Amino acid sequence: METRDFQEFVSNTNLIEMKSVGRQYTWSNNQVLSKIDWIFVNAQWIQQWPHMEGVIMDPLFSNHSPLRIQLEVPKERKSGSFKFYNYLADHPRFLQVVETYWRKPCYGTHMLAVWNKLQTIKKGMQQLPHKEFKGIGDKVSDSRAVLIGIKQQMRDHSRQAELVQAAAEAKKQLEKWVLVEESIARQKSKVTWLKLGDANIAYFHACLKNRQVQDQIIRLVNKQGGLLITEQEIEHEVSEFYKELLGSSTTQLPVVLPDIMSSGPILNWEQQRNLVSPVSREEVYDALQDINDSKAPDNDWFNALFFKKAWPVIGQDVTDAILDCFKSGQMYSAINCAPSP
User: Which end of the chain, N or C, is surrounded by fewer C-beta atoms within 10 Å?
Assistant: First the structure.
């Protein structure tokens, strides 16, 4: 009950946990480990000091670990890759642009052709926001100013009738740009529990800045408790950690003993046939519909919403590529890898 109340309090007050490094737990009685000490900040803090992070120090003689906020000059952040924004899917020319770029001839396997077509479509998607959606913040301010001006003119009762339609149109435009602005902020911040239209722009931006900090490794604490700050120290520590975690290569792998497998629950013949039956086109489409709209593969940054909205144009080719992958057991390497930072 206390944990639920605490989570509700954090959510209702729009507090954000500051990124911290060091020990995983903040309290211990030598038998139980727990994290009961936290560093929370509000949206204003994140907006002003997004690069700051906490350090969970060694407890020494106390049951509690001291918490310290590290202050330093932020490092330069590299520019991000292409990202598809959901509001583009509602653009009146969305499908037209997708079809124009998708129909350009590409050669090779189905998977390679889909990859090349997606790379080509990026150019078309990048053109839409520059022409129609450039300067969203200014459009919101201008639309709000227009609506306020019309409302002020409506103080003259003799003009109310002629201004009603203009006010309705101005309000419609303002709502359009506000939702676009909030959609962008929400998508960047990865906040999914707040609904569009709740006017959470400041909070979305704060979550975005906090997520950007979470994605960076500014410092690490090694096994000996030492604080690593330089890029060379951090790179060496990460490399050694994964070498120890993954181990060395081997030429033989242990096999599963059939006798042990048969002693537990097993599939009947019909279930086994279903597992190895060919994947159908309907299954590919149904699987896409079950994916959250905001989910996106790392390699091209087109999220599930893009594929759903563009399916009338790209569905045939994408399905062919997926079915080829299941038949051959091979996937184009560029799709099956993470992007370079």
Answer: N
| DSSP letter, residue 17 | E
| Per-residue pLDDT tens over the stretch 245-273 | 887 677 776 777 878 777 888 888 899 88
What does the alpha-carbon distance between residue 50 and residue 75 come to, in Å, rounded to a whole number? 11
Strand partners, 17: 40
What is the three-class DSSP state of 10? Answer: helix
Q: Which residue has the higher pLDDT, 157 or 33?
A: 33
Per-residue pLDDT at 131 exceeds 70: no
CA distance 144 to 141: 5
Contact between residue 305 and residue 294 where contact means Cβ atoms under 8 Å apart: yes
> pTM to 2 decimals?
0.53
Q: What Å distances lie between residue 107 and 81, 196, 247, 302, 328, CA to CA?
A: 25, 41, 40, 21, 18
Residue 206's Cβ-count burial label (10 Å; 0-12, 13-18, 19+) is: buried
At residue 104, the 3 state secondary structure works out as coil
Map out the domains of the chain as residue ranges.
16-79
The strand pairing partners of 94, in sequence order, are: none
Please give the DSSP secondary-structure letter assigned to residue 19: P
Of 51-55, 72-76, 95-99, give the lowest mean pLDDT range. Answer: 72-76
For residues 309 and 94, the answer to whether their CB atoms sit within 8 Å is: yes
Is the CB of residue 153 less than 8 Å from the CB of residue 165?
no
DSSP output for 141-178:
HHHHHHHHHHHHHTTSGGGHHHHHHHHHHHHHHHHHHH
Beta-bridged to residue 33, according to DSSP, are 28
- Cβ pair 57, 22 in contact under 8 A: yes
How distant, in Å, are the alpha carbons of 8, 12, 122, 254 from that of 2? Answer: 10, 15, 48, 47
Token digits for 289?
């519909």
Q: Is the pLDDT of residue 334 over 80?
A: no
What is the residue type of 101? Y
Cβ–Cβ < 8 Å for 137, 143 = no
